[in-house]
Amino acid sequence: MTVTLKDIAKKANLSPASVSRILNNRGRFNDDTAKQVRTIAQSLGYFKNQSAADLSQKQSRVIGVLIPTAHTNFADEIIKGMQNEAYENGYELLITFFGNDHQQQMQTVKALLSRQLLAIFMLAVDITLPIHQLIKTSNIQVLSISNQLNDGVPSISSDNYDMMSQIVNYLYDHGHRQMALIGSSMIEPVVATVRRQGFIDALAKHNIKYNPDFIWGNNISYELGLQTIPHYGTPLPFTAVISSADIISIGILNGAKDAGLQVPNDLSIISIDGTELTQLTRPILTNAKQNFQLMGELAITALINNQLSTNTAIYTDIEIIAGQTIRTLKDS
Amino acid sequence: MTVTLKDIAKKANLSPASVSRILNNRGRFNDDTAKQVRTIAQSLGYFKNQSAADLSQKQSRVIGVLIPTAHTNFADEIIKGMQNEAYENGYELLITFFGNDHQQQMQTVKALLSRQLLAIFMLAVDITLPIHQLIKTSNIQVLSISNQLNDGVPSISSDNYDMMSQIVNYLYDHGHRQMALIGSSMIEPVVATVRRQGFIDALAKHNIKYNPDFIWGNNISYELGLQTIPHYGTPLPFTAVISSADIISIGILNGAKDAGLQVPNDLSIISIDGTELTQLTRPILTNAKQNFQLMGELAITALINNQLSTNTAIYTDIEIIAGQTIRTLKDS
DNA sequence: TTGAAAGCGCTACCAG
DNA sequence: CTGGTAGCGCTTTCAA
């Protein structure tokens, strides 16, 4: 029922081999016959059977992409970047959502590995050890995007340590001396650890003694933001907060409103990520914008250039975008 | 280099055929040998080559999913629903982002059609005619989710006509007589047309004369919301707006703030969609919540039950979720 | 520039 | 319950 190369070949009095060459623009062939072949293919409604091609070539141009279901909305931006770059280089993206159910995760990864992928890109995903090992046995290349992992997985992300330094400096320059870091107190993802350390070290550089109470919140959620003000009580013991994600920042903003605080008069906020969410609030959130789209593009480039070795760590720059949530303090 | 069924068969003194049966739990086989085979497979680090399987079976369990790049964030919810259901029934989802570049769209669809998919699901996507025809020639089943299309494409969505009626009734019951509909004045997507008609007819049922000026805005965007108040000027000629999407509602909310209006005292807002975004605002948005997750689940179910004929139109219920953006007017 | 033929890894049929 | 085998549609030598 389905139209195959053979069918086209028969109709064109050619061999399947030639048709294959023509339709793939590979090798040499006569331009005139080529034109004919293409029209025939068109008229017959031919669709390449990619499975057969992959099988025959023992390789595909498919990149598997893992996205967390609890879909941090910057994933879109990364994908946008990847998609363009992938399209131009003839790669396909196989995007798969990655839930929390471990059973399901395993099955998902196995399904991916069952299609001789070129590579697996993980967007902001933290994988468990068994899964990591599963991938390892398959010899498929892996890359973590936006998330630094240990386990020797190559990554493309912001330099989270340096980012904290920039943020602290920014706040310091605006006269802030007491600042809190919200949403990075977990031990697990390396990113949180790195940010904490960067925060502490940056404070030290300004001779500010680090107050352990000022690092709080072990998850990334709106609710965490909402609870932040109640957690510390008013008057707040600090003048500024660094929020580990935009969604947290919105929670803080609303929590402040609920507590009768004025932002930025009573509290300054700077938000890490800088997705569109930061533009939807009143006041608009000052943010440390990560270049997600570029991360996506670089991911493909790195793959093409064979740079996905174990120790690769590519950094993209961040940019601090002034909004309306940072108050400049007169004297310190 | 790669481990194949044959390798396992050799090691287990079996035929590839048997190994295939065992590893797929198909047909009859001896449980003991099965156990052996599985351990061997494990130890050899075997991964099924799905391309070969698909080729051999001339069929795959893969459902292609098209998501607009301008990623209305309810897509996530739909996918969540689909993913669970798909997982339980052994289907794979091949998610593909669908940009605006026509060239790229074509290539994307062709890539999809090159893998004997079971079906293509389109999430809130409006396809152009050539693409529609392309899909048609391939005989792959299609389903539009959350978006009603013409062209005889089966769909799962809310009953947009009835939704408008419910919304208008809700506003009416709260004393509103002058209401506007924002973001549905485009001619193109059928959804907009249906909503307009539903709006007008619902008003008529309450003997409210329909004012054409009160249907405004031909796109779905934050900016549209922001411009709404300036567009009409204050004092507003209506007491309530129905916003065609959450992102528009947020724009309206901010626009109102900018104009010095109090919501809901000076303006009531009800938002269509009811994604998490509605919970992030102050005041919280009253909304007509669509059941996106259910749409996703039903999509898979419909596929399984072979219900994807041309005229299928499955509706899921909406629910009006009271927030803080509707004022009850005393007298009318 | 084109063709013949082998083979990718798996499944399905039919025999045993 | 198991094995032999043909064949899915495509690519890729190698030879013509």
How far apart the termini of chain A lie comes to 79 Å
**Low-pLDDT residue intervals, each spanning 5 or more residues of chain A:** none
Number of separate structural domains of chain A: 3
**Helix-strand pattern of chain A, N to C?**
HHHHEHEHEHEEHEHEHEHEEHEE
How many beta-strand segments of chain A? Answer: 12
Number of helices of chain A: 12
- Name of the CATH architecture of the largest domain in chain A: 3-Layer(aba) Sandwich
Radius of gyration of chain A: 25 Å
Q: Biggest interface, and residues per chain?
A: A-B, 46 and 46 residues
Query: Which structural class is indicated by helix and strand composition of chain A?
Result: alpha/beta
- Can you list the strand order of the major beta sheet of chain A? 2-1-3-4-5-11
Quote the beta fraction of chain A.
15-25%
Question: What is the arithmetic mean of pLDDT of chain A?
Answer: 92
- Under CATH at level 1, the class of the largest domain in chain A stands as Alpha Beta
Main sheet characteristics of chain A? 6 strands, parallel
> What's the name of the CATH homologous superfamily of the largest domain in chain A?
Response regulator
The name of the CATH topology of the largest domain in chain A is Rossmann fold
In quaternary terms, these chains amount to homodimer
> How would you sum up the global shape of chain A?
elongated
> What percent of the residues of chain A sit in helical stretches (DSSP H or I)?
40-55%
